[in-house]
């Protein structure tokens, strides 16, 4: 859970500069656990980190422990929800900002050994880029090396701040783990996530809201069972039952 609390503006900027290979990228806003508005009846999403750069481009950073949390259909859905969020009544379609959906995975999702797998639409007849402004990137968390992306993936998988390559990452980790204000900040994010899910479940009963929280966390594929128990309010037995039903 802590990894999704890491992102503030300086750290998001560092991470995005390395992953997108845009050293001059400037992030002007970054919000963690960003709930996106949705159409009535549609599934809502909660983005790990949602940022905007100085040119208006939007970024969704998702840190996933398990491959099933980065299913290509999920990337497609996140992109669609971001599109709805960023085009308002009266605007032209060409005003829709470019979006970047970035999955930072624990494993090599495509198994080719590359650091980053960029996903872009192309016109199959012409072989040229479709240029619709939607960009999806899968980052290989197993990648290592002397490059910045290799050092960054080391830091994402590093438990000790003192062993990290990037001081920004180390400082933020120390803050969230050791500083009382940082610990309180992380706890508040966790509590806000729980409360938001519970609000959505009020109409169908508090218990259903708790189950919805647990299912969302199970689907995300990046939370330990103990974290799901603590945030959802369900027992470990109930979580395991939901997990079994979802995998049946």
Characterise this structure:
Strand 2 and strand 3 form a beta hairpin. Helix content is 43%, strand content 17%. It has 248 residues and is of the alpha/beta class. It has 2 domains: 2-178, no CATH class; 191-247. The chain starts with a helix and ends with a helix. The radius of gyration is 19 Å and the shape is globular. The protein has helices at 2-5, 9-20, 72-85, 148-156, 167-178, 180-200, 206-220, 225-232, 236-247; strands spanning 27-35, 46-53, 58-64, 99-105, 116-119, 134-139. The longest helix has 21 residues, at 180-200.
Layout of secondary structure:
Elements: H1 2-5, H2 9-20, E1 27-35, E2 46-53, E3 58-64, H3 72-85, E4 99-105, E5 116-119, E6 134-139, H4 148-156, H5 167-178, H6 180-200, H7 206-220, H8 225-232, H9 236-247
Parallel strand pairs: 3-4, 4-6
Antiparallel strand pairs: 1-2, 2-3, 5-6
Helix pairs in contact: 5-6, 6-7, 7-8, 7-9
Number of helices: 9
Radius of gyration: 19 Å
Shape: globular
Measured between the Cα atoms of the first and last residue, the distance is 26 Å
Q: Which sequence of SSEs, written as H and E, runs from N to C?
A: HHEEEHEEEHHHHHH
Number of domains: 2
Number of DSSP strands?
A: 6
Report helical residue fraction.
40-55%
The chain-level mean pLDDT equals: 87
- Uncertain segments: none
Strand percentage, roughly?
15-25%
Q: Quick one: biggest sheet?
A: 6 strands, mixed
Could you say which structural class the secondary elements and strand pairing correspond to?
alpha/beta
Oligomer class? single chain
């Amino acid at each position: 859970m802590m990894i999704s609390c890491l992102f503030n503006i300086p750290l998001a900027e560092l991470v995005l500069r390395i992953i997108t290979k845009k050293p001059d990228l400037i992030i002007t806003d970054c919000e963690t656990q960003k709930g996106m508005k949705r159409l009535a009846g549609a599934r809502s999403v909660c983005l790990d980190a949602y940022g905007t750069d100085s040119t208006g481009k939007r970024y969704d950073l998702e840190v996933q422990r398990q491959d099933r949390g980065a299913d290509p259909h999920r990337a497609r859905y996140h992109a669609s929800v971001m599109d709805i969020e960023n085009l308002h009544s009266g605007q032209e379609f060409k005003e829709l900002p470019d979006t970047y959906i970035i999955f930072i995975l624990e494993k090599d999702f495509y198994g080719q050994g590359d650091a980053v797998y960029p996903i872009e639409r192309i016109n199959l007849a012409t072989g040229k880029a479709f240029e619709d402004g939607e960009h999806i990137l899968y980052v290989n968390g197993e990648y290592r090396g002397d490059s910045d992306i290799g050092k960054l993936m080391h830091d994402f998988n590093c438990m000790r701040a003192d062993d990290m390559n990037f001081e920004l990452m180390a400082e933020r980790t120390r803050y969230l783990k050791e500083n009382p204000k940082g610990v309180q900040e992380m706890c508040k994010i966790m509590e806000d996530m729980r409360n938001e899910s519970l609000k959505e479940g009020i109409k169908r009963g508090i218990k259903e809201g708790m189950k919805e929280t647990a299912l969302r966390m199970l689907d995300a594929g990046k939370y330990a069972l103990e974290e799901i128990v603590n945030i959802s309010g369900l027992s470990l037995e109930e979580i395991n039952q939901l997990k079994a039903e979802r995998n049946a």
